[in-house]
Amino acid sequence: MGLGTVGGGVFDVLQRNQEEIKRRAGRGIELSMVSRRNLAAARAKVGDAAVVVADARAIIANPDIDIVIELIGGYGIAKALVMEAIAAGKHVVTANKALLAVHGTEIFAAAREKGVVVAFEAAVAGGIPIIKALREGLTANRIEWIAGIVNGTTNFILSEMRDKGLDFDAVLKQAQALGYAETDPTFDIEGTDAAHKTTLMSAIAFGIPVQFERAYVEGITRLQAADITYAEQLGYRIKLLGITKRRLNEAGAVVGIELRVHPTLIPMKRLIANVEGAMNAVMVHGDAVGTTLYYGKGAGSEPTASAVIADLVDITRLQTALPNQRVPHLAFQPDELAATPIMPMAQVVSSYYLRLQVADQTGVLARITAILAGHDISIDALLQRESAEGESQTDVIILTHDTVEGKMNQAIAQMQALPTVLAPIVRLRKEELS
User: Fold this and answer.
1) SS3 for 203?
2) Do residues 10 and 112 share a domain?
3) Are 56 and 75 in contact (CB under 8 A)?
4) Active site residues
5) Rg, Å, the chain Cα set
6) Are 122 and 9 in contact (CB under 8 A)?
7) Is the whole-model pTM more than 0.90?
8) How, if at all, do strands 254-267 and 426-430 pair?
9) Residues 154, 95: one domain?
10) pLDDT along the chain (434 residues), means of 10
């Protein structure tokens, strides 16, 4: 259902690698019917290899079809079609992270009731098999945290801003001209796409229901070239990260899950800090295995098709397995999902980058550091640079040690009220990922 960029890639790879796939799956996988509103374009792509229809419901109604692939996207008609396919007893493969992040609980429950599989490897990080790694490869581990670059558009923009010293708006236009960013790039640059993907990884890692509505989401639209430059001088690079962590109390009991997406300073020595252009990478830390890194193309026709077809092969292998013998959708058995809360952002613990544009006067720095100390926030590093605004002003850049976000919010409000602070304070979060 849907024969766009990814659908076309699925057709091409299935055709090209049919024999290899059959040897791995144990039986052939035949793409027998395709739906697309533009019938002429669909027929030009698949020729006589599959029946082409305009109405996707014809696929669901076909009794000879075992697996339905949904590549339409969005929340609307895609949800209705997925639910109808499940009701018809068909397995579903989808790349639709938005649909699953928002409606996954309902969809997975319906699939369990009908004894069918909803597979979604392609929904997160394109061709990188991160879902399988979390759900199967790392199943012995207690996952402690995940941090990922899971949106290629924003990573391309940040790479260009750093390499060329340009501000966000100029690089966004370049990304659109090159086809890395959509005409309306809101989902990417505001962090929504990354938050959908991080929500799914969080649910699988920690055995909790998908709950995108509780994620903290901050995009890259307010980032300035100056902050990227200052971060470099301090030994850091800025990436849009999806982060989810298990938070423990002093007794070692889980008190909550952090689920957040925002621009983040990462030490240059970390491999993930050196992921450039439109590439994706995900770090996962487990108690037994330590830190692992998964890197590759997070989008595109054939990389995403690779993940779709991997799901097809998995379902084909499981055709004769009883439903309760299959790998659960979210890794944990459905009746074992935890009610662990997603923590409000004010309770999140992180370290911070602050940039204050201040009057170049005696005592300004002392007042700022006194405010931070009054909120039990300790300073890790400090830079003072002449501001681009003029000789009477200076930029003060501060890196802090870990603190609770609520305390930082209070400190920033107090500093912002100083008459010698001349512009809105820039605040970015910093993660050592060690």
Assistant:
1) helix
2) yes
3) no
4) 197
5) 24
6) no
7) yes
8) parallel
9) no
10) 93 94 90 94 94 96 96 93 98 96 95 94 94 95 97 95 92 90 93 97 96 97 94 97 94 93 98 95 97 94 94 86 71 81 96 96 94 97 83 92 97 97 97 94
